[in-house]
Fold each of these.
Amino acid sequence: MYDNPIEEARRQAQICNSCRYCESYCSVFPALHANRVFSDGDMVQLANLCHNCQNCYYACQYTEPHEFALNLPGVLAEVRQDSWEETAFPASFGRAFHHHGTLIAIATILGMALLFWAARSLPADGEGFYAVLSHNALVAIFLPAFLFPVVALAVGLRRYWSKVGGERLRLSQLITAFGSAGRMKNLAGGHGEGCNFEDEDRFSQGRRHMHQAVMYGFLLCFAATASGTILHYVFDMPAPYRFFSLPKLLGVSGGILLCLGTLGLMRLKMKSAPELQDQRVRGGEFGFILLLFVVSLSGLALYVFGATPALELLLALHLGAVLAFFLLTPYSKMAHGFYRLAALARDAQRT
Amino acid sequence: MSQPGAEYDVVVVGGGNAALCAAMTAAESGARVLILEAAPKPYRGGNSRHTRNFRCMHEEPVSVLVDSYGEDEYFDDLIKVTGGKTDEHLARMVIRSSRECLPWMIERGVRFQPSLSGTLSLARTNAFFMGGGKSLVNAYYRTAEALGIEVHYEAPVTHIELDGSRVTRVDYQLGGEARSVRPGAVVVASGGFQADIDWLAEAWGPPARNFLIRGTPYNRGVVLRDLLDQGVISVGDPTQCHAVAIDGRAPKYDGGIVTRLDCVPFSIVVNNDGERFYDEGEDVWPKRYAIWGRLIAAQPEQVGHVIIDAKALPLFMPSVFPPIKADTLEELAGKMDIPADRLTETVATFNAACGEGDGFHPTELDGVATTGLTPPKTNWARRIEQPPFYGYSLRTGVTFTYLGLKVDETAQCSTEAGPVENLWAAGETMAGSILGQGYLAGYGMTIGTVFGRIAGREAANHVR
C-alpha cells in the first residue's frame, strides 16, 4: 500500500491486469489491459475514464480483508481528483473549492449579494427582469463570468491532454466521446443494468438516470439562455417571453429535470459508501450539487413568482447562484464533465 | 418429510456455487432453507469466488458462446485431461444438463461476458461470468435472499449426525456458540479439504507444508471427514490434489487467478541448485501447468526459479508481482538465492544447445528445440542472452482435492447399507465422483451447478 494515490493506483492496476475478470464492466479495463506498465499519464487517463460505478469493487475477490486490498474505484477517485486540481488554472482555486463545500456556499452568497446590490444600484431599462436590472448590466456581469471559466477550462484541458499523451484530435473521436457521455455508457455496467452504488452489490439505474436528469436538465437550461440571446440579438425579440416560447419551454423543463436530478443524486450519494470515493472532497461535492439545486429551484421560483413583488429578491438569488456556478465551474465537480469528455476522446484514440 | 416442529426443511452446508444452486432450487419448490456458510460475509462463496467461467454444451451460438460445442466433443475434452478416470454416465449427464443451466443462471442474476482477453481459445466452450465468480456468488445471494432463504455466515458445521440411514441433526457454531438444527434434508456442498495443511501433509507427505493454497482457507474438509468417519462412501484418490505451478510469492491462501505465471515455455526453470530438471517447452502452458505443479513439488524445498531475458517479457500475461530484475545473470542469481556459478553454467550450456531461434512462434508449438541437451527444451528454445534478465520463483499451488463423497445420479450419498435417505452432496465435495484426475477449465462450475440443482430438487421432494 502506498500513500501516494498514483503509486497505489499503479499497484492495484497491475493486479487487475493479471486478473481481467472485470473486462466488460466499463471502458477502464480494456484500456488498462492494453498496457503492461503504467506511466503517471496512463493512470490519470484511467482515473478519468472511471465513472465510479463500483461494479468492479463488489465483484472483486481481492478487496479487504484480502491482503491485496484492492479498491480501484476509491483510489482512481483520488487520482482523478488530484488530476483536476493539478491541471486547474489557477491550481490553488482548484484545491480550495473542490475540498470545501463552505467555500462554495460563501461564493454563492457573495454572488447573490453582488446581484442584489446591482439590482438596487444600477439603472433598469425594460419590463420583466429588465425592470430590475438592465440588459446591459446583465451582459456586463455575465459575459466575463462566462468567458473566464471557458478560458480556464481550456487551459486545464490542454494540460490534461498533454499529461495523458493525447494525439491530434479527430472529429470521429469527439463524436464517440459525446456518444458515450450522452448515454452514460460507463454507468450502464456493461450488461445495461447499471451500477453498484447505493446498495452494495445490487445493480441499479438510479445514479445513471439521476445523472442524466442533471446533465440534460442543465443542457436544456443552457439552451434556454442561448435561445433567449439569439431571440434578443438576431430577431430583436427581448425578454420577457410567453410560456409557449423557446426560452421558457426549454428553461422550465430543464429546471424541473435539474431540480429532481440534483435531489436524486444527493439522496444516492448519502446512501453510498464514502470509502469507494474520494473522501477528501465529499464536502465540496455535496456543496456543488446543492448549488446546482439552488440554481434550478430559484430559477423555477422566478418563473412562478416572477410577477409578484418577490421578483427582485428571487432574481438576485437566482442570478447570484448562476454567477457562482459559472465562476466555480473549473474548480468544482462541474469540471468533471469536461475532463471525462477529454478522457473518452483520448480512449477513442486507443482503438 | 420434515421432522415435526423443525424450523427448516433443508439445511445446506456450504455457501458457494453448488450450495446456492441447491438452496435456490429447494426454496423455489417451497422448502424452508437454511445456508450454513463457514466464511464471514466478505469471503463467502468458497472457491466459487475465484472461478471465472462455466463450460457449456451448445448446438448453436447462445448468449456469449460462439459456434457449437457438442456432447461428444465436450466428453472427449474431458477424457483427455482425466486420462479415462471418469464416470462416463455422470459426466455425460452433467454435459447434457449444462445447456439448460445457462438460461437458469441468467434468470437468477448471473451475467456473462465474452471470453476475456488472453483466453480467446475458450470463446466457444466457456461462458465467462461478468466480474468473475464473486459476482455470480453475489447475484445468487441476492436471489436467495429474495426467496426467503436464511443465511448464517461464520457458521462452520462441526458434525452431521447419521442415525442408520438418516441424518437426524446438524451441529454448527454461530457467534462462538454451539447450535443444532434438525432439518428434514441436508445438502453438503462444502468443498474439499485442501485448506487443511495437516491433512494435505498426511496425504502427500511433508513437502505439502510448502504448498500454497490457491483458494479459500475455509475448505478444511471438516464435514467431509465427519461423514467419512461415519461410513459414508467416498470416491477419489485420498492422496491426490490438483496442483499447478504459481508465483512463489503468492499468499499462503486465496491468491486466486492472479498468481498464475505463463512464462515457463519461454524460460528455463532451475531448482535451488541452479539445475534444470524438465523440458520447459514440452507443450503450451495450459496443458502443462498442472504437470509443473508436481515437478516443483518434487524439487528441494518445493521451489523452482524461472529465468527469462528481456525479449521474453512481453510474450506472456502480466502477473501480479513484478519480476526480479538484474543486468547480469550473476546479479539475478544473487537476488534469487541460487548459486551464481551454477546458474551461469546452466544458462551457458543451454545457450550453446540453442540454435538461432529461427521460426520462433510464441503461440504455437514451433519446434524450435535444443540439440544434445538433457533434459531438452523441445519448443520455444531461444538463447537467454539479452539483458536485463528477469526471474520469478515458482511454488506448487493447490487448487482442489479429489477425495469426496460418492453420489449417484440423484446426488444422493450412501453408506455400505444403502442410500442415506435425506443426504445429498453437490460441487467440489462430490466432484471426485466424475473427475478422477486432471481438470478441465470451467467444468467444476458445471458440476456444481448441475448437481446443486439436482440436490436441491431431491431434498425439496423429500421434505414435501
Amino acid sequence: MARPKALVDMSQHYCPGCTHGIIHRLIAEAIDTLDIQDRTIGVASVGCSVFTYKYFDCDMQQAAHGRAPSAATGIKRVHPDTLVFTYQGDGDLAAIGTAEMLHAAIRGENITIIFVNNAIYGMTGGQMAPTTLVGQVTQTSPYGRQIETQGYPMKVSETLATIEGAAYIERVSVDSVKHIKAAKKAVEKAFRYQMEGKGFSLVELLSTCPTNWGLSPIEATDWLRENMLPHYPLGVYKDKGGEQA
Amino acid sequence: MAKVIFDEDRCKGCELCTTVCPKKIVVMAEDRINIKGFHPAQVIEQDKCIGCGFCAIICPDLVIEVENKGAKTCRKEC
C-alpha cells in the first residue's frame, strides 16, 4: 500500500481528521487503476476543496462557486476522450450550484461528480447548508435546524435518481474501513462508466467536518454513523445498464 | 512479516488510525511532537502487526505505509 501516482507528494491543508484526504486518495487510486492519469481533467469547486488543483497530479481547472458541472461540460465536449470529474462539497453543489448539477444530469453529460456531503459549510466557518440535518446546531442555526423556518435537508442522490439522464448514482460513506472500501469501488465504477460513455454519474460521499461540528475526529465519525447514516441511507440509487439496487 | 511505516511529519494527530487497528498496537507518541506540532501516531510492537492495512486505509493524510510480506491478512469486518 503506497501513495497513488495521481496524488502529489505533499502535505494537504485540511484540518486533522478531515476526510477530504481519504476521498482524494480514493480518486487518485481510481485514476491509477484505470491508468488514465494523462487523460484526466478535474474541476475544483469553491470550499475547503478549492486547493484540490494542487493535490491531484493531473490537469485541473478551478470553477466559480457551484459552476463546476458547467465547466466540466465544456471541457468534456471539447475533449470527449478524457475523464472529467468535478470535486464539490454540499455547500457548493446543493446550494449555489443546484441548477448546474441538476441540468448537467438532465442533459446526461458524460461527466462524474464527486459530491462530498458533510452537512455543513466548512471553509466559511460552519454555517447551515441545504444538507444540514434537522435539529443540527450550526453557526447560523444555533437552536438546531427547524423544519418550520428552514425546511428539510436536501437528499441529492435520491433527487438525481429520478432524472432520466443520470446513469449512475451511489451514496457511500468514509466513516469506517468497510465503507471506505465500498466507496473506492463506487468511485472506480463511476469513472469506468464515464470512460465507457454511459453518461452522467455522481458519487455522494458522507464525510465529516470535525472542526465545524465541534467534535474530535473520532467523535465526528461516531456522529456521522449515528446521525447521518439513518437520514442518508447508503446504496446505489441508479445504475443504468448495470444491476439495479 | 508485516511492517508499518509512519511518515511522522505528515501526521496531524487525528487518532483515527488508533480506532481501526484490530490488534490495538497503533498508539499516539505522547512523548514527542512532529514538525506540525502534533503527537504523531506510531507502532511500537511491530511484531504484532498482521499487515491488514486498516490504519493506512483510514488515514486522511497518507502518513502510513504497510508492507505485507507473506503475513496473513485480517478479513474481519471487511
Amino acid sequence: MYGWIWRHLPGNAWVRALISLVLVLAIVFVLFQYVFPWAEPLLPFGDVTVDEGMAGPR
Amino acid sequence: MARTDQDERRGELPDAASGRRRPRRGRIAAAVGILGELLITAGVIMALFVVYSLWWTNVLADREAKKQGDRVRRQWAQQEGPGRLDTKDGIGFLHVPAMDNGEVLVKKGTSTATLNDGVAGYYTKPVKSAMPWDKKGNVTLAAHRDGHGAKFHNIDKLGKGDAIVFETRDTWYVYKVFAELPETSKYNVGVLSPVPKGSGKKKAGRYITLSTCTPVYTSLHRYIVWGELVRTEKVDADRTPPKELR
C-alpha cells in the first residue's frame, strides 16, 4: 500500500519525501479536525456526570 | 537462479542473509503485507486519538475557557453597583488550591457541549443545583477528568479540610471538604440531593458537590467530593482573594 503510493509519487526521493510529509500532515489535520471530534462522543471516555441512564447528558 | 539474483539487484536492496528471497511476492504475501500495513495504520490512528484526547482537546478547551472567563470578568467590571446578575455566560469561578488548576469558569448545564469548553457546569438535571447564594441547598458541579481542559483531573488530591472557593461577582464563598466518595455508580444521583446522600449529612445546609469520572482516562465510575460552606467574604475593589487562595 505505502510502497505503491511511494512508487506513484512524482519526482526524486527528496521530492517524494516532501510530498509524503505534506500528505501525512494533511491526514493528521483531517483526523484532528473532523474525524476525532465526530468519533469522540461515540466512545465511552468522556462521561463525567451522574445521571439516570438513558435520559441524562453524556 | 541467476535471473532471480539480477531481479534482486534491480529491485529493493537484497537481504544479505537470505539471498533466496524472491523480489516478486506471491499473491498471499502481498495480501498479508497490505493487512500488516493496515494494522500498523490503525495503531498509528489510535495513538493519534490518544494525543488528540489528552492533549489537543485541552489546548482547545483552555483557549476557549480563557476567552469565556475573560468575557465574564469584563461583564463584572462593567456592571457597577448591585443589580440583576447576568448568568448566561457563567455564574462565577471555582478555585480549588488542592487541585492546582487555577480558576474554573462555572456555567449552566452539564451537557457535553458546555463541558467541552473547559469549564465546570452546574447540574440542571436530574437534580437541579442550588446557587452558592441560596440560603440552603447543594451546589452541584461537573467537569472533565481528562481532556477538554481536564479541570477536575486532580480531584483525588482533595482531602478533608481542603478549601473550595467559589467566586461570584460580589462574594467569595469558602467551602471546606468534609466527605468524599472515591468511586460510585454513574447512576447514583442521590449525591446531588440538597442533603447529599452518602455524605453523612442529615440536615439541610449549604453544600457543594464536585463530580467527575474515575478512574482516570475512563468513564466507568464517578468521583464525588463534598464541601460545606464555612464563611463568605465580600469582594473588595481589588478583588483580594480570601486567605485560602493566597
Amino acid sequence: MQQRGIISFGAYVPRRRLARRTICSANSWANPGLAATAHGHKAICSHDEDSLTMAVAAARYALAERPEDNAPDMLVFASTTMPFADRQNAGVIAEAASLSENTCTADMGGSLKAGVGALRMALERPGETLVVAADKRLTRPGGPQELRIGDAAAAIVVGEGDPLAEFVARRAVSVDFTDHYRSSDAQFDYQLEERWARDAGLLHIVPGPIRGLIEDAGIGGENIAHFVAAGLGNRNARTIAKHCGIPEGAVTPDLHAECGDTGTAHPLLLLTKALQSAAPGEFILLLGYGQGAEALLFRATDTIGRASGMTGADAMLADGVEDGNYLRFLSFNGHVSMDWGMRAERDNRTAQSAFFRHRDTVTGCIGGRCTACGTPQFPKSRVCVNPGCRATDSQVSEPFADKPASVKSFTEDWLALSFNPPLMYGNVRFAGGGVAMLEFSDFEPSELAVGAPLAMQFRLKDVDDRRGFRRYCWKAVPPRELSTHTTADKEMEGASHG
Amino acid sequence: MAEGIRDKVAILGMGCSRFGERWDCSAEDLIVEAFGEALTDANIERDRIEAAWYGLSSDDQGPGKSALSLTSTLRLPNIAATRVENMCATGTEALRGAVYGVASGAYDIALALGVEKLKDTGYGGLPERTKGTFEDLWFPSITAPGSFAQFASAYVAAHGIEMDQLKEAMAHVSWKSHENGAKNPKAHLRSRIDKEKILKAPMIAYPLGLFDCCGVSDGSACAIVTTPAIAEKIGGDGPLVTVKSMQLALSNGSEIGFDEWDGSYALTTRIASQRAYREAGITNPREELDLIEVHDCFSITELVTMEDLGLADVGHGWREVLAGTFDADGQVPCNIDGGLKCFGHPIGATGLRMVYEIYQQLRGKAGERQLDAPKLGLTHNLGGFPNKNVCSISVIGTC
C-alpha cells in the first residue's frame, strides 16, 4: 500500500500587520491593563479580504507545489467565519482555484478544531484532497481578543505516493467545554474566564488523547520532534508537552508576535512551519483544540526537504507591511461607520444569471487565447481583439491568474468609492500577451509606478448589504516577496558547509 | 468613396443657455432658454422645423429614453424627433443627426438640441453610472478623473519626462482656460486662477488636482440647420457658416484589450481627426484652423489632444502648451470660450456648446473674447475613457 500523507502545502497571511501598540494606545483610556500586551503584530485582512479570499490564496500556493500528474478530487474548507451560511464556500474556492468541475466540495466549521478535523478526514479517505482552513474573526474593540486574534489561511494537499510526511495515527476526544463560543447570529466570541478554561478545560482534556496517540504509535513522548499546538499560547503548549513527556524544544512557536491566533487556520499554519523545519524520520504531532481535541501524528519522510521550497508561514510572515492605523482597522471591520458619501449609496445588486454565465471570467480569472493568431485576451470574447486578426469564435480558455503582470498606466482615485481610499486601478500588461484594466489592491499611495510588477489575487469586489450577497473578482497586487529559504534550509546549508 | 458633407449644410441659428449650477432651472427651462435664442437667431417660425435630434446622456427627463421631453417642452408640431446618446459626444451626435438629415435631402430645416441637468443628481463629479451586468462583476469602479488621469502616467513613461514637468504644462492648460472663461458671460466658472493655486490644489485622482478637472454643471445648447441655399435666402447679419466635416470614431476594444496602444494618447482622436481633415479638405491643420474647441474634461486630455489632432508633434504637446501655442493669443487658440473647464460638462449639451462658440467667433459675435477674423474652427469630444471611447470631430467654417 502506498504511503498516505501530506503532499504539499501553502499559507497565506495578509500583507497588513497591525501593531498591537497601536491598538493598546487607542484603547488604554478604557483598559489600561492592555499596555502589558502591547508587543508584536496581528495580521489583518484588508478591506477586500475575508476567509474565502485568503483560502483561495493559500490553496493556490499548495496546488502550485503538488505533482502535475493528478489533481484533488475533493476540497474541504474549514472555517468558523465563512461568508455564506447557504452557498457552499468551498465551491467558490474550487472555481477560483480552477479545480475540475468533478471535484467533491465540502464546508466544515463549528469549532476551531475544524481545520485539523478536515485534515483528518482527508487522511482517512482515498484519493487526493485539498484541505483549506481560514478565519477572519471579528473582535470587540478594546478587549483582549482583539489583541490575540489575527487573520490567515493555510492549505494542505493530502494524497498518496510520495508524501512529505506520512500519516501515522490519530486520536480524538469530544467534550462540550465552552471556554468560548459564538452563537450563529453573533458577531463576536463570548469568552469565559481564562483560568477556568485552562485548568478545567485545556489541561484536563488535551493530555489524554496525546498520550494515547503516542502510545498507539509505539513511541515515547521524547520522540516527538515537533509539537504543533495552536491557539493555546506558548506557555500552555509547553505545559501540555511536559505532561506528555514531549521535549519543551519540540513546541512549534505559536506566532503570537508575528500574526496572532488565526483560528481554524492556525494549526495548519503552524504545521507548515513544522514541516519546513522537520528532518527525515522526525515525528510531528498536530493538535486541534475546541470542544474536545483531535490529535494527528505524522512522520517526515525522506522527501521532507522539498518542503523548504514551498510557501509556508515563515515566508508569508517575512513579507508584511506594518499598519499603525487602528481607526482604519475598525472601519474595515464595520466597527465605525465612516461617511463615504453618495457613491456608497449605489445598489450593488448582482445579476446572478449574468454572473453564472460569466463565472469563468469573474471567479476563475480565465480569459481567451485566439487559436488563429495566438493573442491572449481578457476577458474572452467572441471576436478576437487583435486588429490584424478579428477571427470569430476562435478562442480557447486561457488562465490568467498565474501570469506575471506589470503596470501600464495607473491612478490613485480619491473621488471613486473605496473602503480603503484611494481606489487604485489601471491598465495592466500580462507577460506573454494580454492587457486589461483592473483594480489594484495592497498598494499604498505613491507605491504604484508604470512598469511595477503585479500578481493576480482573488478579492472581494462589492458587498451587497441589502441582499446579503458578496461578490468577488481578481485584482492586481504587488507580488509577495517570498523567500523559500527556511530554517531547515539554513541548517542544511550549514551542515553541508561544515 | 463617399464625397462627404462638406458645405452641404449651413447653420441657420444657434442658442446656448448660461451654464452653471442652475438651481432655479429644470431641464425644461434650459431647453427653452437655448432654443429661444436659436430660433430668434435663425429668424424662422418654429413650425418650419421638420425634424429634431435630441442629445441627453445621463438622467432621463420626463418619460424615459425618447425625445418626448424635447418635443413636449417645445410643443413641436408632431415632427420626427430622435434621442441620441453617445457618451460625451452626445451633443455633437445630435448635431450630426440633424446635419445628415438635411444633407440627405430628407429635411430642409432640422433642429439639434442637447441638454443635461446634472446638478439635480446630487453628485460632485459625474453621477455613478451603470455598467451593465457583466462589467459590474469585475471591472474597477472607475471615475472619469481616475481613468483620464492615466493619460498622465502613461505620457510621462512614453516620453521620458518628469511628472513635475507635465503637471506644470497641465496647470498652464487650466490657467489658460480660466483666463478665457473669465471673459464669457455664459460660463459657469468665471474667475482667474493663478498657476500656483492650480498646482497646490487637493488631489482628485493622481496626478489630477481639483483644477485639472472640469466642473459639473447644467446647460443646454441648440442649432438649427438647413441647406446653404435656404440659409442664404433667409439671410442673416453675418457670413454663411457651413459644416465642413463631421466624423466619429469609436474604440473597438483594441486599446483596452490588445497591447499595441501605450496609454499616452487617444487612438480615436487620431483616426477621427484625419478623416475630418480629409472631408474638410484640410492639409495643414495647425496653419489652417483658426480656433479649436476640444474636450478638456481634464487638463491632461486637452494636452494629449493637441498631439492627437496633429497640432503638436507627439511627445512635444506639453512644450507647445507651455510656449502658449494654444493660448488666446497663440497660433491656434484652444477653448477660447473657457472650455469644459469653465463651462462644466452637461454631457448632452457640451458638443453643441463648442459649435456655438465657433459659430459666434466666425460671425464676429464673441464679444470680449472675439478673435481676429477667424474662418475655420474645429470641435472635438472624447467620451468614455482613454482605453475605450467615442471621439467626434466637427469642422465648421465660413464659405
